[in-house]
Amino acid sequence: MSIFNFNSKDLGIDLGTANILITLKSKGIVLREPSVVAIDETNREILATGKEAKDMLGKTPEKIKAIRPMKNGAISDFTATSLMIKNMMRKILQEYNIGKPRVVVGIPSGLSDVEKRAVEEAMFQCGAKEVYLIDEPMASAIGAGLNVLEPNGKMIVDIGGGTTEVAVISLGGIVTSTSIKVAGNTIDEAIAAYLKRNNNIAIGLATAEKLKIELGNAEEPVTEEIKEIRGRDLNTGLPKNVKITSKQIHKAMQKPIGEIVEAISKTFYYTKPELISDIMENGIYLSGGSSLIKSLDNLISQKLGIQTFIADSPLDCVAIGTGKIIEDPEKYRRVLKRK
């Protein structure tokens, strides 16, 4: 008997620290929003979610709270997360006339049982009929087009907003994995801290993220790019324009990038020789938004001596993976977890 009804309108969810993506069976990705919610503290009502709420970060009066309720891949504010997901799912359920869907949720592999139950509870409160969990690295590997069911070792490195997940996969299971709370957000924080320390200027994390995207390079840049930004002078407290170079951003990113490379190297230490041989032949696959940092694939290749590839649509791999599962659940039965 099929675990999902052939005609059911099932959902796949990438519950990320930075973004939430929802996939609808037979439709693909139908929602893509930042994992941010704005709540009126006086009555606990939602004012905005997603991009609209993200635009409010750092700009709200005291009675309004705009927050990221997911931290390092886990639910740090259960109430706010439930409200955020309910609001997003309500839009999808109404638009596509869905009753109580079955839901496949991608979760970080390092979550505790308590955190997994919190994710499930949030989904049930949002109207889910049944909830299935899948480790994000597994969903990401499926979304990247890797055959995770065959007896051949594959390595996926999913660098998201809150966590970097490294996993060696074979026969539909994660054989070895490493999860660290160093990822895109950590790199943004490192850039902001570097400029505070070296340029005596305070910038927001949104500005740091833009610098990462526009000037960031995992390897020392050959040509220097310059971007002018505005921040707050730490001496005067007044606004100030400063020119920032790509070499400065490279230096700021070195520590967290080094920790990500070390996590990959550490995973090999606990991997069986036969699987290492497979990975050397197949290569390492990168997914997640921060996999797009310039030259990161080249740096990993050079440091580890293994060819490294960036997956197609790296931002969407987990969502695409959950989408493939709800399209053919029998094929992927063994990769799902159900409490």
Summarize the structure.
The protein is an alpha+beta fold and 339 residues long. The protein contains ten helices and 18 strands.
Which descriptors apply to this entry?
339 residues; alpha+beta; Nucleotidyltransferase, domain 5; Actin, Chain A, domain 4; five-stranded mixed sheet; 10 helices; 18 strands
Can you walk through the features of this model?
Strand 12 and strand 13 (173-180) form a beta hairpin. The chain has helices at 51-54, 78-95, 113-125, 136-143, 184-198, 205-215, 246-269, 273-282, 296-304, 317-327, and strands at residues 11-15, 19-24, 28-34, 37-40, 45-49, 64-67, 70-71, 74-75, 102-107, 130-135, 154-159, 164-170, 173-180, 201-202, 226-233, 239-245, 284-287, 308-310. It has ten helices and 18 strands. The strands form five sheets. Strands 3-2-1-9-10 form a five-stranded mixed sheet, sandwiched between helices. Strands 13-12-11-17-18 form a five-stranded mixed sheet, sandwiched between helices. A three-stranded antiparallel sheet has the order 5-4-6.
Give the topology.
Layout: E1 11-15, E2 19-24, E3 28-34, E4 37-40, E5 45-49, H1 51-54, E6 64-67, E7 70-71, E8 74-75, H2 78-95, E9 102-107, H3 113-125, E10 130-135, H4 136-143, E11 154-159, E12 164-170, E13 173-180, H5 184-198, E14 201-202, H6 205-215, E15 226-233, E16 239-245, H7 246-269, H8 273-282, E17 284-287, H9 296-304, E18 308-310, H10 317-327
Parallel strand pairs: 1-9, 9-10, 11-17, 17-18
Antiparallel strand pairs: 1-2, 2-3, 4-5, 4-6, 7-8, 11-12, 12-13, 14-15, 15-16
Helix pairs in contact: 2-3, 4-10, 5-6, 5-7, 6-7
